């Protein structure tokens, strides 16, 4: 959710609705990848003599395709969409809050500057980080509930409200709804890494080129998003571990911090365990980013056209009222003269 380089021609709520619309569409399309990467990230690598330890359904997944096959086999195609409602609510609220606060803080920053001009790259990234942090504070409870729904078996799975109550009734109480907040706040650097890597790769691969072809921009975007995902994957895995049910090896004892999650993973699976599920994570990120921005641009254009139409109607009505008032004034003028 990187910041844009131009002032949005829409009010904050217009940009927020456009961003939320794009995010909901994009995540609905790739949702099976989301649940697969979540299952892969929470499972603990088991030894040959160990009992099944996957918290979802007792299965151990060896790859993305293996996870898809086993989920469909056990839960049907509907299993690939477990927790979809909560996820889309979370996505819509997160992106609405992000684009709303980004537009607000960016507008406030520009209006506070004595010399008008475009914000620098560092300022753009800082504004995006602030907006992302504010959005996380308001929307992370939905993410916690959705993660719980995605990582339990079909028999244990409950509705959105019931799962939320289960989290609140745990030993963490209401604070359990904000599990993984620190990791989420740190993860706002992901867009910054994406944008920085994009600019650096552009200078290296296409030096001096001011305009890129669509396929060149797509390649750079894909590479930069992949680099950002690789750099932040350990935190992504740790956040999922914090928000899901603790693995059986911990006897129901929840993790207290993302450092504790990472230490547990390294102890049981080695350093590579911090990068589990990275395949579907990268693929999901690439597709979501593309669909999100594509849809957001179209929705923003529709809003701009709608506002222009409404302004035109309003102007025409005001003009008619003005003309009517003028005619009445002219008609009454002779009487006033007498």
UniProtKB/TrEMBL annotation:
Family annotation (Pfam families): Mito_carr (PF00153)
Gene Ontology MF term list: ADP transmembrane transporter activity
Subcellular location per the Swiss-Prot or TrEMBL entry: Mitochondrion inner membrane
Tree of life domain: Eukaryota
Protein transport found in the keyword field: no
Membrane topology label: Multi-pass membrane protein
Keyword Secreted: no
Single GO cellular component term: mitochondrial inner membrane
Residue stretches spanning the membrane: 12-33, 80-102, 122-145
Classification via InterPro entries: MCP (IPR002067), MCP_dom_sf (IPR023395), MCP_transmembrane (IPR018108), Mito/Peroxisomal_Carrier (IPR052217)
Main localization of the protein described in the UniProt heading: mitochondrion
Solcar repeats: 10-108, 119-204, 212-302
Keywords (A to Z) from UniProt: Membrane, Mitochondrion, Mitochondrion inner membrane, Repeat, Transmembrane, Transmembrane helix, Transport
Protein family: Belongs to the mitochondrial carrier (TC 2.A.29) family.
Name of the protein in its database record: Mitochondrial carrier
Taxonomic classification: Eukaryota, Fungi, Dikarya, Ascomycota, Pezizomycotina
């Amino acid at each position: 959710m990187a910041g844009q380089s131009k002032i949005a021609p829409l009010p904050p709520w217009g940009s927020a609705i456009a961003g939320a619309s794009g995010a909901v569409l994009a995540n609905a399309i790739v949702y099976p990848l989301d649940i697969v990467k979540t299952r892969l990230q929470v499972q603990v690598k088991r030894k040959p003599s160990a009992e099944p330890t996957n918290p979802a359904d007792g299965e151990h997944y060896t790859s993305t395709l293996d996870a898809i096959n086993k989920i469909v086999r056990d839960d049907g195609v509907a299993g690939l969409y477990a927790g979809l409602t909560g996820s889309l609510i979370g996505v819509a609220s997160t992106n609405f809050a992000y684009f709303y606060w980004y537009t607000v803080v960016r507008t406030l920053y520009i209006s506070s500057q004595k010399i008008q001009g475009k914000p620098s790259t560092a300022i753009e990234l800082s504004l995006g980080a602030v907006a992302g942090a504010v959005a996380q504070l308001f929307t992370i409870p939905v993410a916690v509930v959705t993660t719980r729904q995605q990582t339990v078996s079909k028999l244990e799975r409950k509705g959105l409200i019931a799962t939320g109550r289960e989290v609140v009734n745990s030993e963490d109480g209401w604070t359990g709804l904000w599990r993984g907040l620190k990791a989420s706040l740190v993860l706002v650097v992901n867009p910054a890494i994406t944008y920085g890597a994009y600019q650096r790769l552009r200078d290296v691969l296409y030096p001096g080129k001011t305009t890129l072809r669509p396929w060149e921009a797509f390649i750079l975007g894909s590479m930069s998003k992949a680099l950002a995902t690789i750099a932040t994957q350990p935190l992504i895995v740790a956040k999922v571990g914090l928000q899901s049910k603790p693995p059986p090896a911990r006897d129901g004892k929840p993790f207290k911090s993302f450092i504790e999650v990472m230490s547990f993973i390294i102890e049981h699976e080695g350093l590579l365990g911090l990068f589990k599920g990275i395949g579907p994570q990268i693929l999901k990120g690439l597709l979501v980013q593309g669909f999100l921005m594509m849809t957001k641009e179209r929705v923003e254009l529709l809003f701009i056209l709608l506002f222009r139409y409404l302004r035109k109607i309003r102007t025409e009505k005001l003009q008619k009222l003005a003309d009517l008032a003028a005619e009445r004034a002219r008609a009454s003028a002779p009487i006033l003269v007498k």
